[in-house]
Amino acid sequence: MHIAPIRAVALSAGLLTLWGCAAPQPAAAPAAGAGPVTPKVNRLVLAVEPTTAESNVLRQLSTTTAWPIFPMYEWLIEVDPATGKNVPMLSTGWKLEPDGASYRFSLRSGVRFHGDFGDFSAQDFAAAVAEKTKPDAQGQSVAYWRQLLDKVEVVTPQETVLRLKRPDSQFLDYVSRQIPGTEVFSKAAMDKLGEPTPASGPLPGTGSYQFKERQIGQYIRYERAPYKHWRVQPDFPEVEFRWMKEASTRMASLLAGEVQMASLPTDLQKQAESRGYTSLPGKVPGFRVFVDFRCCVLSDPKNAKSPFVQPGSPLEDKRVRKALSKAVNLEELNKGLFGGKGEIMYNNPFHPTRPGWNPDWQKQFAAEYGYDVAAAKSLLADAGFGPGNPLKVNSVIAQTQGFSASGDVIDALANYWRLAGLTVELVTPPSQQVQDSYQNHVVFRSTSSTLWGGIVNFGSNLASSGRQVMNVYEADEVLTEVGRTLDETKIEPLWKKEGDILFDAHKFLPLFWLPVEIVVDPKVVSGWLYPGSLTGNWTHLEHIKATR
Fold first, then answer.
1. What is the sign, positive or negative, of the torsion defined by CA atoms of 340, 244, 544, 38?
2. Which residues of 335-367 are buried (b: 16+ CB within 10 A; e: fewer)?
3. Pick the CATH number of 2-284+517-546 from 3.40.190.10, 1.20.1270.10, 3.30.700.30, 3.40.50.1100
4. Which secondary-structure segment (H or E) carries 294?
5. Hey, is 176 helix, strand or coil?
6. What is the spatial distance between Cα 308 and Cα 288, in angstroms, rounded to a whole number?
7. Less packed terminus of the chain by CB within 10 Å, N or C?
8. CATH 3.40.190.10 in the chain, residue ranges
9. Cα–Cα distance for residue pair 361/329, rounded to 1 Å
10. d(C-alpha 66, C-alpha 51), whole Å
11. CA distance 538 to 543
């Protein structure tokens, strides 16, 4: 990939317009009354779970660790917080080029960078893409960019063309807030200041908030940009993510008034609500919990007949995977650990609001996945396991991002499986190398992602992370076709075909779609318009409204 300036050219009249100047604009924050508001606190503090890694260098952050720096950045494309749809942000519109693969973006003028680093231009976006694709860049989408992108052409300061090697129906998500990686920073700042350090803070962005300070392992703080922002003027002068691993600590801090917003598990959330606190939900379905089978990795991902890297896992047998699903009492689990708020997930990561939904999955769910201990034992017996030869599986103990009660769920799942006759060992992964060698492991997951991201990141050879999880070769073939299809009428049946393959293969053990909610002090916070469907959950802080 290289970045090449070219001379300005007129847009061809024959270009296919996907979204343009008439595209819907981001939803405005909910009105809380007329005129300015004086918040009850100068610094709004959100008590949330810590990320697994912290850095001020954007390329060192992955999909799950980048969200804490989002308040200071913007993207070419925004995720509307009310609908989850892609809408213009730093771009004003985009068009598909005549080659049927590349995209031409018109960029917004007059958008200031924090500090004295001028206005946003195409050169800044080109620098963000170059940073994303450096040899030491991390994250699930890095391989995607390296495989797909040919070059970034800077046409004028307010126009750029991204030349792609092939058509890709998901590309617009990868230049949006949907998928971290193309946060726009100041190239002038990078040229002047060099690589960020823990002490320097990240490179300046264009967001409503600018970086103030951070203490690794403790907090990261932002302050409102000291000028009228082009998009949203936040109510609160400062916001802070404060890392608190224990839910009980977050609860105590909320009750003591040390924090004004807190991520809490269902039981503590109910207690807080009984004391007058309020829960604010995200607007877009996206957050879900499920079990990922870690086995069955093909030695040659392009050859369906190639042997597994580590053959012999009992999880290779679909009857075993089906038995693990049928051993779990979803109704009891939902009531006991999710407060009854969980919506059964019939086929991860498909949902009735997403493309490719097949109502037959819901009709067939009871027979294929529904709770039936006797049926689970019978399936295990058919697979050669029983009292004299119990099935042994390793359940990984790991805190999941954005979900406070993961430890309780892992324990509950292990107990269900033991009641079905399994021997379950709870293991803690000490390193990424150990994770890469999994061959008989089950991993509880909680995440938000798009339909595409949910499949690619948890079971496909189309991304680097796919080599660590169970491969379904037929599903990869369909997913490849989805990625190369721009015709919406053709994508829908392809998604349905993909879902049918995953459902029949018992690729995942689906659990629930969950509402994303944060508990707030209503004396300080009156509302918050945020999707809750993006990785990390806590995005769009600029839309938090102060109580009058």
1. positive
2. eebbbeebeebbbbbbbeeebbbbeebeebbee
3. 3.40.190.10
4. strand 287-294
5. strand
6. 29
7. C
8. 2-284+517-546
9. 18
10. 9
11. 11
Of 128, 119, 121, 118, nearest in space to 106 by CA: 121
Q: To which H or E segment does residue 280 belong?
A: strand 278-281
Residue type, 327: A
CATH topology of domain 287-513: Dipeptide-binding Protein; domain 3 (3.10.105)
Polymer length in residues for the chain: 548
Each residue's pLDDT expressed in tens, for the chain with a length of 548 residues? 444 433 333 333 333 334 443 344 444 444 444 567 899 999 999 999 998 889 999 998 887 889 999 999 999 999 999 999 999 999 999 999 999 999 999 999 999 999 999 999 999 999 999 999 899 888 768 888 998 999 999 999 999 999 999 999 999 999 999 988 899 999 999 999 999 988 889 999 999 999 999 999 999 999 999 999 999 999 999 999 999 999 999 999 999 999 999 999 888 999 999 999 999 999 988 889 999 998 887 777 777 788 887 788 999 999 999 999 999 999 999 999 888 989 999 999 999 989 999 999 999 999 999 999 999 999 999 999 999 999 999 998 876 666 667 888 999 999 999 999 999 999 887 554 445 567 789 999 888 888 888 888 787 766 544 446 787 889 989 998 998 998 888 999 999 999 999 999 999 999 999 989 999 999 999 999 999 988 888 999 999 999 99
Beta carbons within 8 Å of 83's beta carbon, 6+ residues apart: 27, 283, 284
